[in-house]
Amino acid sequence: MSTLSARGKGFANAGKIREQYEEIWANVYDVNTNPSGTINLGTAENYVMLNAVTAYINDHINFKGTDVNYGEGPWGSLRLRKAFAKHMDKYFKPHRPVASDDILASTGCTSICEMLGFSLFEPGEGLLLSRPIYQAFQEDFGLLKCIFVPSKGIDQFSMDAIKCYQEAIKESEAKGIKVRAILLCNPHNPLGRCYEPDALVEYMKLCQKYEIHLIVDEIYALSVYKIPGNSNSGPLPFKSILSFDTAQYIDKEYLHVLYGFSKDLASGGLRLGCIWTQNSSLVDSLSAQAFFNQPSNLCETIGISILENDDWLDKFVATSQKRLAECSMVARSLLDEYGIGYNRGASAGFFLRIDLRQFMMKDVDSITWDHERAFQLLLKKHKVYVTDGEGLSSEVPGFFRLCYVKHEAEVRLGLERLHEALSEAGTTGMAEELDEVRMT
């Protein structure tokens, strides 16, 4: 007899999340202390800028007594919200200045997504997501019906993809599922591309037509880079949804933008993010829930100092973008050397989507999710981790997300191990691993 509620049992049975994390982090690679450990090429983190952030904190932060009291409220101090607004004004080029009253701070975008789920949706109502998409959105909005919209060969960052979402809305409602929102990740995780400006306008119009919310996650806004050798007709630059005169296309009650420190500011451990919204009722709802997701005053102090230091931040962003480009070129060169396909149009984020189908089976159309799961077991054996396509809600198996923003020697060794696993898969057909997968 379980001692848990039905809801508690649902969480307990959702998957061995803690076990999966510990498998990676309990034996993580270190060139000096654990060279035989697992190389993590699956976590999207800006490792090459961590030391810059750490050095800044050590040099600039002196905590005071007020930094360890209760603070001004769980929605973020006025100074923090003003700092976020100033940051968005500078880098996002909004059509109208961002007001601090339209900002609510929290312990990262994950917490904000959960609160949005409670505030905007009834259990079982639908949230439209692209596929592939960042795997944690399914967990963040766990009580909802996540509906993954297939692109059907259409460029999902173009205006042509709008019809796929319109079809998904109609099909969902025919099944009795009320679609309440569309969530866009711009720049996109895991595809590393930005949406066409005209497409963003059409998404706003679509949401207005059906009176549904548009949630735009812009957490990779400044994690963009130029690919050497690309002409002016290369990948689209990032354009924030805030840079439009949105009132022309969508009621302010339906538009919400997420941002945080985890990616652009290489501070995933700081646990600090925010939402911009002009929906006053939503602000009230989120403020009530914020008591469960209040950022530490110590984290706020660090965040405020970083956001208010214009000179340092300008140099940091420029250095980060330069290093992202360099890391990307190292990864692309190695993938080319090993004959591994990837999305060459990526120009944002810390990852490339790689195509391993030809190595897993000659007849790529016959690859199943069991083959992908079996290959993950093989990668585990070879001590390297990349994000599987199934977790990213890919349309077909065999695609993985490679996170390459690490020091070059570690990326080289990680891809060498990946190549060894691919060679073994080609030799053995992963027979042993497939048996293990099918027995579980």
Number of helices: 15
DSSP strand tally: 13
What is the subunit organization of this protein?
Answer: single chain
Q: Give me the secondary-structure category.
A: alpha/beta
CA-based gyration radius: 22 Å
Q: What's the N-to-C terminus distance? A: 24 Å
Helix coverage percent: 40-55%
Question: How many domains, as an integer?
Answer: 2
Low-confidence stretches: none
Largest sheet: 7 strands, mixed
If strands are numbered along the chain, what order do they take across the biggest sheet? 2-8-7-6-5-3-4
Order of helices and strands: HHEHHEHEHEHEHEEEHHHEEHHEEEHH
Per CATH, the superfamily of the largest domain is Type I PLP-dependent aspartate aminotransferase-like (Major domain)
Q: Give the CATH topology of the largest domain.
A: Aspartate Aminotransferase, domain 2
What is the CATH domain class of the largest domain?
Alpha Beta
Shape: globular
Explained architecture:
This protein is an alpha/beta fold and 440 residues long. The chain has two domains: 6-52 and 314-439, Aspartate Aminotransferase, domain 1 (Alpha-Beta Complex), CATH 3.90.1150; 69-309, 3-Layer(aba) Sandwich (Aspartate Aminotransferase, domain 2). It is 41% helix and 12% strand. It has 15 helices and 13 strands. The protein has helices at 6-12, 17-25, 50-60, 78-91, 109-120, 137-140, 162-174, 197-210, 280-289, 297-308, 310-338, 357-360, 369-381, 408-428, 431-439, and strands at 39-40, 103-106, 126-130, 145-149, 179-185, 213-217, 255-260, 273-277, 341-342, 351-355, 384-385, 387-388, 399-403. Strands 2-8-7-6-5-3-4 form a seven-stranded mixed β-sheet, with helices on both faces. Strands 9-10-13-12 form a four-stranded antiparallel β-sheet, with helices on one face. A two-stranded parallel ribbon has the order 1-11. A hairpin with an 8-residue loop joins β9 (341-342) and β10. It is globular, with a radius of gyration of 22 Å.
